Automatic annotation (TrEMBL):
Alphabetical list of PANTHER family matching this protein: NF-E2 INDUCIBLE PROTEIN, UBIQUITIN CARBOXYL-TERMINAL HYDROLASE
InterPro entries (alphabetical): MINDY, MINDY_domain
Pfam families assigned to the protein according to its UniProt record, in alphabetical order: MINDY_DUB
Cellular component terms per the entry's GO annotation: cell periphery; cytosol
GO biological process: protein K48-linked deubiquitination
The name this protein goes by in its record: MINDY deubiquitinase domain-containing protein
Amino acid sequence: DTPETSARNQRKEHYQIKHIRWYDENKHGIRKSPILTQNANGPCPLLALVNALVLSTPAGVDTALIETLRTREQVSLGLLLDAVFDELMSGRRGGAAQQLPDVGELYAFLVTLHTGMNVNPSFTKAPESANGALSIHPDLRHQPGGFEDTREMRLYSTFNIPLIHGWLPPSESRAYAAFERVARTYEDAQHIQFQEEELDNKLRAEGLNADEQRLYEDVHVIKEFLTRWPTQLTKYGLETIVNSLKPGQIGILFRNDHFSTLYKHPRSEELLTLVTDAGYSSHEEIVWESLVDVNGQGSELYSGDF
């Protein structure tokens, strides 16, 4: 296929729509909202973003995005992208989109979101961008996991929805110190492990100097951390997310290489993720899944009013 044909075919892909009833703290009552359920690609960043945009839109405010979804049982990718783009350019999400030098670049980025997005989680305090702005949402009172400040992250941030992760070591731990010294991000941590074999060989042959010994120990601590928390969420990270989101706030959680729409219960302050699995699309009563531990063993399914 030519690029033009591929683009046309992509725009014809469809997402199923589920209409949920859920308790909105800001409305102090039940409201009905249309959400997307996942297709064969799994919970992609576009799906999480669209659902976060829908749920964070105040009750009674009609947007092109909500109107597009409300009147349908399924929506084509092309129609969905046009509605999301309209939402961005409306100014309701702030003026970041209008300030971009190339608005066409933003639309091209939206097209790629339905297949995934490259993110590089940071294990230490979120790095600052070149202009001194944090790459995470400014409303967060405490700081959960951030990401390397890349072009994709800057474009994603124009939607003004917190994108966070909880793959974090406690700040006083050996793991945090190791990450801060030699591998602040996930990509850094992958690269640093390539030095392990070389250090092993030198240790056996002639021994290591003080700097090499520290690096050798740091690599092992980092490997142990990554092995211990394979779901990309730690107990400390989960606590940090709970403390960072405001009651009733919507965010997007990166975990297990997937993106999920996140909600903080307005009363109990428990974390909940939006259930978008296609297998539950016909079950109106299943809306939320609790996020209470790192491996999902204690999770429970909830209706829209919990």
